[in-house]
Q: What sequence folds into this?
């Protein structure tokens, strides 16, 4: 993950852990990565994770965005 997405070790470990957990979620549950780190968000997007950047979403819009998942 570090090389593939140009991530630091901590972000690469987090992304790897999230990808490991994803297949074990109960049906209908979603995993959403909330982060403001653009490299981490780009890596997560590239790996197929749902992401939210709190710096680019109004707080009032978050419930609607989450319910649309």
A:
């Amino acid at each position: 993950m570090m090389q593939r997405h140009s991530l630091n070790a901590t972000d690469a470990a987090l992304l790897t852990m999230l990808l490991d957990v994803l297949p074990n979620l109960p049906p209908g549950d979603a995993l959403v990565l909330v982060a403001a780190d653009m490299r981490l968000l780009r890596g997560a997007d590239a790996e197929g994770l749902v992401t939210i950047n709190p710096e680019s979403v109004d707080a009032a819009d978050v419930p609607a965005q989450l319910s649309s998942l």
Q: What stands out?
A: Residues 9-21 form the longest helix (13 residues).
